[in-house]
Amino acid sequence: MVGISFIGILIGTFSLMLTLAIMQGFEVTTYEKLQSIHAQVIIKAFGNPINMKSLSQVLNNEFPEVEAFAPNMTQQVIIKNPNTEDISTVVAIKGIDPTLQRNVNNLEQKISPIGEKKGTLPEIVHHNHILIGEKLAESLGIDIGDTITMLFAPDEPRRKKINLIQKEGIVSGFFKTGIEEFDAHLIFADLGFVHSFFPDAGVTHVQVKIDPQFDEQETIYKLRKRLQIEVYSWKDLYPALVSALKLEKYVMFIILALITLIASMNIISLIFMQINQKKADIAILTSMGMHPSSVQAIFMTMGCTIAGLASLMGILLALVVCWLLQKYPFITLPDAYFVTHVPIAWHWYMPMAIFLLAMLLSILAIWIPLRRTEHISITDVLRYNA
């Protein structure tokens, strides 16, 4: 029974720790991929151009919570395939300030290296040099240094006939986020270059990075109240995805916690057996003056020792497996996921929380049979058993 109880708790805590690390890995990896395009907080003026001079003064002087910010301008253009006359490829072109943009998200980390060298954002995006997604380059047959033609309609009143204006850009780099939506339909260019396409459009939104010492939601509320324009977290762009990741993690935690509880139930049988076998010893110790709580402490110590050692070994074994999965990612995933291999991520409080949970469930399981010691008749036991 000791072995069965030990192995049951070990497997329960091992499964709980490993599953939480994998679910946390999915959440962290997905957030990281999405934040390669989006910043932590986005300011948008309901489709109107933003006055960057006034906004900069407010952010710099009134909001110490804002660590960095960068203006953006997003428009739609048609890419002409350099090898054919096809003009069916419509993409979003995002104008950025490369020097400021590298401070608000991790786009620079997603730039594909050219040979052994990996260029920086300011080195790649400048003047008419652009950065495009790998999937888009692959579909159009574009390589580094190629010149591509972009077609766009000027901001004019609606007419039956639209005249498209051409602009040429030089491909100076590729990026890869691992998300099809971005890699196949997005181009990054210098803000001034994009502004030459649409001189009346102006800055459409501003990406903001919040100092980790401050609360994100509280800062968003203060910005929204002060600026009187739309301010939201990047998570608001993907509410279903964010909710699904959190729900999966919580549901898996509850299910595996119940499995750990079931494993702890074996201790009930173990303690019941011990109490029945040690009735005579309990009666003798009690008759000699030992307090019933001291007798119960003996069984509690035995059960807690089994549960504590099993929990520690289960958690340590799970951490070893996590390290192996990080070091050797041999489990591949289908294209439906944002990652190619099983991701792993965990925080220091996760093993501690799992250990405390396992101990709490085990103490609850031990306490149930311990109540029986209070109903043992010392006289009857000494008369018939001792």
Descriptive account of the structure:
With 386 residues, the protein is an alpha+beta fold. The chain folds into two domains: 2-32 and 241-384, no CATH class; 47-228, no CATH class. 51% of the residues lie in helices and 17% in strands. It has a six-stranded mixed beta barrel with strand order 2-3-7-4-6-5. Strand 2 (66-80) and strand 3 (89-96) form a beta hairpin.
Task: Give a concise summary.
This protein has 386 residues and is of the alpha+beta class. The chain contains 13 helices and 9 strands.
Topology at a glance:
Blueprint: H1 2-34, E1 41-44, H2 52-62, E2 66-80, E3 89-96, H3 98-101, H4 121-124, E4 129-133, H5 134-140, E5 147-152, E6 165-175, H6 180-183, E7 186-190, H7 191-197, E8 205-210, H8 216-227, E9 230-233, H9 239-277, H10 279-287, H11 292-327, H12 349-370, H13 378-384
Parallel strand pairs: 3-7, 4-6
Antiparallel strand pairs: 1-8, 1-9, 2-3, 2-5, 2-8, 4-7, 5-6
Helix pairs in contact: 1-9, 1-11, 1-12, 9-12, 10-13, 11-12
